[in-house]
Amino acid sequence: MEKIGQAFEEETGTKVIFSFAGTGTLARQVEAGAPADIFVAADAEWMDYLVENGAVRPGTATMIASNALVLIGPKDTQSIELTSDALLAALDGARLAIADPDTVPAGRYGKAALEHLKLWSDVETRLAPMENVRVTLASVARGDTPIGLVYATDAAIEPKVAVVTEIPTGSHSRIEYPATITEVSSHPDAEAFLTYLTDPKAQNVLRSLGFVADKDK
Q1: Of 68, 94, 159, 166, which has the fewest beta carbons less than 10 angstroms from its beta carbon?
Q2: Which of 113, 110, 115, 116 has the alpha carbon at shortest distance from 128?
Q3: Beta partners for residue 217, in sequence order
């Protein structure tokens, strides 16, 4: 987002100021009337929530990208199969790091995938719920947990972890990143930046970082 914001500033002269946090946290802030013009979510359900509560402008939500889930381990960890025996062996009595399934989109997608793959009952009592995906990533990178479930784009930026298996995209609902204009927005360039997020230049930035750009779907 910062790269896209910089490119937008270079083209228009308008600076974009970002505030980063988990989707749920940001959604609650937008609902409370936080002075933001654009809201970008890592989860369509939270966007729907804000639409229903009148916190964002109707009809402005735009999908800008999607993502995938992977299981990771510390660097040089061998690949594992998505079977009960293989996963439990990899955990070796330890816990599976995952963004909290009750509050964080990545955790909810992960739970849905593990249920679909009939692995949830095997790990449900062996979870280490985390505040967000980046905390999950850091836990595995430090070696605090042997296996973690994160977005593919997060795994790609951490050299201390390795992807041990990819989660089939059909095992969970599509991971979508919608963006919209907030109801309290007053900046005259808000709509222009929202449109810019689907511009080929912005989409190329997303694609270069491992996201599935909206135009690729």
Answers
A1: 159
A2: 110
A3: none
∠ at Cα 126 (124, 132), nearest 5°? 85
Task: Tell me the C-alpha to C-alpha distance, in Å, between residue 181 and each of 9, 38, 61, 63.
Answer: 18, 5, 7, 13
Long-range contacts of 28-34 (CB under 8 A, 24+ apart): 30/55, 30/56, 30/182, 31/55, 33/184, 34/182, 34/184
Instruction: List, for residues 22-40, the tens digit of each pLDDT value.
Output: 888 899 999 999 999 999 9
DSSP 60: -
- Sign of the C-alpha dihedral computed for residues 12, 18, 22 and 23 taken in this order: negative
Longest Cα–Cα distance in the chain = 56
* Model pTM score: 0.82
Please check whether residue 153 is in contact with residue 133, taking contact to mean a CB–CB distance below 8 angstroms. Answer: no
Contact 116, 172 (CB under 8 A): yes
Which tokens in the block code for residue 195?
């449109």
Tens of pLDDT, residues 146-161: 999 999 999 999 999 9
CA-only gyration radius of the chain, Å:
18
